[in-house]
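re: ur question from the group chat, yeah i did fold both. here u go
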Amino acid sequence: MNKVLVIGGPTAIGKSDFAVECALRFNGEIINGDSQQVYRELSIGNAKISLDERRGVPHHLLDVVPYSENYDVARFQRECREAIHDISSRGKLPIVCGGTGHYLKAALYDYDFPEERLSIDDPAELNNDQLHAQLMAQDPQSASAIHPNNRKRVLRALAMAHSGITKSERLATQKGHPIVDLKVIVLDTERRVVADRIAQRVEKMIQNGLEEEVRRYFSDPKAQSYHSFLGIGYKEFKGYLSGQATLEEVKEALIVHTRQYARRQLTWFRHQFDATWIDIQDPQAKSLAYTAIENWLKENA
């Protein structure tokens, strides 16, 4: 069974930098585990790690599709597993780094994704409440667990339902066993520090030209139906692009939504993985994490 190191935690906590350090220390290569960082053109709003910050470490599933192409969890599962096999076959350690929880679980556990097809001619013509109402009619259990404004998850659950097996039915039959030898490290710290980091990141995004990036790719209303626009960092600009919101209002929405997402990420990691948690403010935390990883790598070696 291949060994796979997972670096998780809330957004803006420093996962990418820590993953690079682990890759350099343990002869690893990194697999992106963020659902939005697969899009080539969109770097500022998705806070991608730069070439310099990668420090020569190979990164997989980063910048792999154009922003106009839909990329889903089933494709990530397939391509992440292929990357794990490739990296392991070359004697290196696969390190999956990211905070998109259901992507990580899909790739690393025994979940199956039959072919799915959304039976709506033009979902962009339907607002969030209309789509959610359709899901409620076809899979009320899943609909009750997904907020109407989470358009991406609603569309995915609808696609499952339209393919003949609802999301709730699939979850009921899946055992949820890992298919690899996992070691999960979750970075965390005080909520106040995470909130400050998020605010600083949003400010940096604005300074680095996020508004221009959004205008370049999403000024056309049709482009606002792309999956890439539905992620935090871009969808907040919808009102701004139509002249109904100011840049300051967008900035505040970005901070609020990112903080909410960070809380959801931490809750997910607490309930889904048996992990080693480290406080990034603890001077000894990284040393403890490295020791835990070294001990794990020696097991069944």
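okk and heres the other one u asked abt
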Amino acid sequence: MAINAIQVLLCDDHPMVRMGFRQLLESTPDIVVQAEAETGEEAYRAYRKQPVDVIIMDISMPGMGGLAAARHILEYNPIAKLMILTMHNSKTFVTRAMKMGVKGYLTKMSEPDELIRAVRLVDRGRSYIEPSLAQDIAISTIAGDQDLIDILSPREFEVFTALADGFSVKSISSTLNLSPKTVGVHRTNIMKKLDADSLVDITRLAIRHGVITA
């Protein structure tokens, strides 16, 4: 390991996946996985306990999930260098993550060398989006396409995703550390903003925008 190796916090809820990415990252002498986390909560605690150079975060994890964890980390340290590595290739997730302050976004279908390159760029303070995703966003921007879900606040988006996944208000309040009343208010606001009449409409919208799979 090089003396000035890039220290990484690797966050994914699948041990075998983490092992594979750790081996890939540490196959080069200038990157070392300093710590691992299985949930968003663990990722947040691990970063506060021992800050690293780059955080690699999955989106779909137990508990608060990757985007919520990213938001908490960036609120704690606005200059944290954080990148997403996920199966989600939805423009909704990419644009929301980048607006939040995330520096990089790759899917798990990326080539191995692309992950190494992205980590190095993010460590240097640059942004990196997987080329195919960046192209989709550019085309949508030129065409003037607007994502309806963009009108949701970060917290509303977290509640929206959980509702679409079928979680109850009680479960969401526990996971996001909110009162059931607050979750209920968010649900009402979400349905009004999205012109949704029921939770079925919420689920359909989430599927249509690639937030969840059918």
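fwiw on the second one: The chain has ten helices and six strands. The CA atoms of residues 59 and 66 lie 4 Å apart. idk if thats what u expected
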